[in-house]
Structure formats: structure tokens, C-alpha cells
Amino acid sequence: MMFRGAVLLAAVAGSAVADFPHMNDVKYVVSNPAPGAEGKAISFHGKAFFTVDSPLITSRYSQVIWYTLAPVPLPKDVVEAYDNKTMSVTGWEVDIIRIGANGTEEGVPCYESYNHHYGASLQGKGADLEILPPDLDEPIQHTHGYGTSGRHVWTQNGKSSGKFPTVQNFAEHNGNEARQSLHYMAPGYGTPIESPTTFVFTPMQINTRNPDGSGKRCNAPGANCPLPHQQNAPKGAPWSGLLECPCNFGGNTRMIKTFDHRTDTAACLWNSTVTIQEECFAAVAGQAKNATAADASLPYGCSVSADGTVVTFNTDKHTASCAGTKHCVCRDKTGRINGKRFDSGCIGEPRSELVTTHNPTCDINLYDGGLGCCGGTDVIDGKATSTRFLLDADQDIPPLVDNVFFRWRFYYEDYTPALQDSFHVEWQFGHIEYSAPKCGTCPECGSCSPPEKAVHTLTTHFSVNDLHSSSSQCSGSQSCTDWDRNTKRPIKLLMMGFHCHSPGCLGGKLWNADTGEVLCTVKPMAGDSLVDKHEEDYLWLPPCQWGSAEDGLLPPPVIPMGTNFTSVKWTNNTVAHSGIMAIWQGRASYAD
């Protein structure tokens, strides 16, 4: 089959602002409309738009496609029109498409192909991209990562003026919510890129399509959609347990977890007891004589004598002190999952509660699902692959192959000095991901009765300066560097989206902790059907947008540097949820 790749689909003569029909059959709304504009649909504007189709994403059931796809050239007309000129992107749309049996395009429901997240960039001719080999020693901490691709390194090649960015990343509302969530710059603002030539895309896509070929949704009677032995979706749930990247470290797993170790005079708490004899002796190899015991007077698991001469593996599960003549050898919070370094880098109080609440994402001993278990590679049907499969080793991978692709539409206009540049802002609630334990199992987990009380709460305290810590997501000009280093100039918010995952996300709230002013409250919307973009139990997140009263928007709030924020994220935890996210992502500009 052939793809158009990138096509200029519409244009308006001159540079006049025009409204365009949407690519997606979606009514784009915002979470913070001006009074009287509640429910008002937002239209995209600009001079023209073009579309870009990603390469095909080919996968089998439970497969995770997580690497950078082949770059796609932009439409020839666009490249020629903006050679040595600057385009200002004013908005974008995202969709996922399949070519049906009769050769026509059809929207793909997210219960068949789930986008966990993506990275997307427009590249100008003044930038070169090098994709480094995967670094197994680089842990996933505060970025979405590149999967089985390595880090992206952008370098300037001297083919641009240096006055405008040559790379712009589009990392707002960048997950399953992207199709129905508004990505928009109000008139007067834009995202500039000089001499754009190429689209670069890194999806993390999980195949959750019913593999029996019937076309039934997986929770339909008679459907056959196997799930790994350890996952969170209850029987009959409309959502797939695969989408949370479940880990199963039991005997039938494809997942491999190895541990760093520490010696402690306290007991091995939080699931950190060494339970394997060979692991115990290897942890202190060469330091002591090995011994085994079944002795209630010794600590259970692995211990070493105070003088370091004898290491003992004890099978008696009575609790005994690690102090005195024996010191416990415990599994540390760090190690490796599927060969990839695990060192969470979780942020502690006061900015995040994840460390003090012993959230599983911060400790390899507790880690139960997320990016660490969707990464790495597998051997399937005797052949090495460049991807991960989420079924267990004792489960056959169904043979049905699915092919989907992403379609992006970019709206744009000519850059003029009157336009204000926008830059990416972002804050994660202490880590790129976290887990919400089941209700009733922890102080922050809420009660299971009545069901509406089953809410996990995560709170963060941070400052506007932290919004710059994830970088401007652009490169090639001094303006990108200056934004990253800004500590003095006030900014104004233009867009704030909340990135969280189906099906448990109940939304987030952001307020100015110095004044008490609520800046943004995002409540998810969910579908109620089998139709793509309206799927039952799958969410999208209308962002907060600021702009003009004419568009039904409030004016952008001005935020002095040093301003303190507080934010809360709520998750329905009738069942536990693993590897979920709580991230504010948006765009802002200088206010002076």
C-alpha cells in the first residue's frame, strides 16, 4: 500500500487568518471558558495547513512499539515556500488510522491500538538529528524516553540564520487523549520554526486489538483476548489491562528484574528481603564464607556477620534483629528491569509525596507496572525482536497482525515580529509515572465504601521556575536557551493540559499557592460507545486555554518568576492502577 506521507491540503491566499474545518470529527472545547462561552467549540486558524502520515506501525497482540520511526519529508510546496523563512505553527490535530479491507481509511478505536504517549518534532534544514544507540545504563526518570531507540541529539549545521528555532517538539497532551484534546495557539501567538523540512515521530503504541479476527471488542461475549497473569483490569472491563504496562515477575514472566543490594542494621522492609540463596551469596561474593541455616535467632533471608567473615542465607521466617552480630543484606531500591537501569530519581517532599508514601514507582522491590516493563526486547517464535510483548512466557502470542498509522495536521501562518513566541512548560508530580494502589490499602488511597470514596490523591508543591525544568522543547536559537535559563522575566500561560491515563484519571487542579487563585481545573471526558474517539472508558482531557474574549477565552494569567503552585491529581482506585501519569504540559510566553 502507498501513503501520501505529507500533503499540503488547503491554503488561503496571503496571510489572512482563516478558520478551517477540523480533520477529526470532534468538538474541541476548553476547561476554562470565559463566562457565557461554556461549551463553545474552538476553531483552528492560520494561513494554511498540511498533513503528515507516519510510517506504518505493524504489530501483534500485546506488542509495544516504542522507537523512533523513519523521518517523513514535509510537503514539497511547504518546504519550498518556507526555505530560509519562518513558519509559525498555530495548532495541530492527531489521529490514528487503518486501511480497511476494502482499501478505505477507517479511524482506529483506542481499545484496539492504544497510544500510551508519543514524541513528535518538526525539523528544519538547519538541524541534524543523531539517534544514539540505546543506553541501558540511563534510567527512565523524568522523560518519556525513546524506548528501544536511543536519545535524540540535535545539532546545528550552519544552514539556518540562528534567529529562530530549527526544531520544535510538540509534547502537549501527548497520549491517548491527543485525538480529542485541543492543541491550539490563540491569535497573536505561535510556535516558530525556520525552514521546516521533516517530521520525526516516536510513538509508544500498544496493540490491544482482539486477536481472534472477529472484530469484537475484547470485553464482548466470546472474545478471546488473553491477559498476563498479573494485571489490573477486572473481568469484563471495557479497558485492557495491557495499557498499564503490567509487570509479572513470577515464574512465567518475560520480565527480568535484578537488584542492587545494601547492608543494613534495620530489617529489610518494603519487600526488600533477599529470598534466593544464590542471590544472597553473590551479593557479598568474595567477602565472606557462605553458610545456610534455618535458625529463628537469625534474620530471615540474607545476613552477614558484623566482622564480615560469614554470609548466611536463613530460611526461617521468624523476625530477628539485624543489629549486633548480624547485619541484614537487603535488596536496594535500584537495579535493572529487562537489562535497563532502574534508579527512579523520585523527587521528595515538599515537591512530591511519592517517596514518603513508598510509591511503587520509586522502588524496584515494589515496582508493579509502567515504562520499565514496556521497554526492552523479546525473543518471539524463536526470533529476536526490537520490541516488548506483554503476555507472559507461557502464553502464545496470537498471529494476527495489525497495521495502523498516525496522521498529523499542522495549522500555520507566516511568522511576523508581531507574533509572540510560545515555549513548552511542564511539571511532573515527582516522577514521569506512578502507581495508585487499590482503595483501602494506604492512607492516601481512600475508602472502598461507598464506591465514590475510592479515590487516590497525589499532591505536589512546586514553583513556576520548575515549569522550565523540562526544557523549552525547541533548539536552534538563543530564544530556546534563554527560556530554559529564565529566572527573572514574568511569563503568561497560554495553554495548560493535564496528561493522565485511562481509565482511572479523575482530573487535576492547579492553583497559585501564594494567592489561592485557581488557574486550571481539568476534568476528563469519556466516550460511551464502540466508535473511535467516543470509546467507553477511554478518556480525553479538554485543556485550559487562554486568549481573546472573541474566542470565548479568558486573558492569559501573568505569573512572576518565583510564584509557588500547588496541584492535586485524583484517580479512581476501585482497582489498582500501575504506571499512570500526572503531568501538567502546556505552552507559555514572556509577559514583558
Structure in words:
This protein has 592 residues and is mainly β. The protein folds into two domains: 6-210 and 402-590, no CATH class; 257-337, no CATH class. The strands form ten sheets. Strands 1, 4, 5, 8, 9, 14, 25 and 26 form an eight-stranded mixed β-sheet that branches. Strands 6, 7, 10, 13, 15, 24 and 30 form a seven-stranded antiparallel β-sheet that branches. The protein is globular. The chain starts with 5 loop residues before the first strand and ends with a strand. The model is unreliable at 10-16 (pLDDT under 50).
Quick one: overall form? globular
| Termini gap | 51 Å
**Biggest pleated-sheet summary:** 8 strands, mixed
**Using DSSP, what is the number of strands?**
40
Derived from helix and strand composition plus strand pairing, the structural class reads: mainly beta
Summed up, the domain count is 2
Low-confidence stretches: 10-16
Number of alpha- plus pi-helical segments: 4
Question: What key attributes describe this structure?
Answer:
single chain; 592 residues; mainly beta; 2 domains; eight-stranded mixed sheet; seven-stranded antiparallel sheet; globular
List the helices and strands and how they pair.
Layout: E1 6-11, E2 18-20, E3 44-46, E4 48-53, E5 57-60, E6 63-66, E7 72-73, H1 76-81, E8 86-99, E9 105-107, E10 113-124, E11 127-131, E12 152-156, E13 167-169, E14 189-194, E15 196-207, E16 257-264, H2 277-283, E17 289-293, E18 301-305, E19 310-314, E20 326-337, E21 340-342, H3 371-374, E22 379-380, E23 383-384, E24 388-389, E25 401-414, E26 420-421, E27 423-428, E28 434-436, E29 455-463, E30 474-475, H4 478-485, E31 491-499, E32 505-512, E33 518-522, E34 525-526, E35 539-540, E36 544-545, E37 558-559, E38 564-572, E39 577-580, E40 583-590
Parallel strand pairs: 14-26, 17-19
Antiparallel strand pairs: 1-4, 2-3, 4-25, 5-25, 6-15, 6-24, 7-15, 8-9, 8-14, 8-25, 10-13, 10-15, 11-12, 13-30, 16-20, 18-19, 18-20, 20-21, 22-23, 27-40, 28-39, 29-38, 31-36, 31-37, 31-40, 32-33, 32-38, 34-35
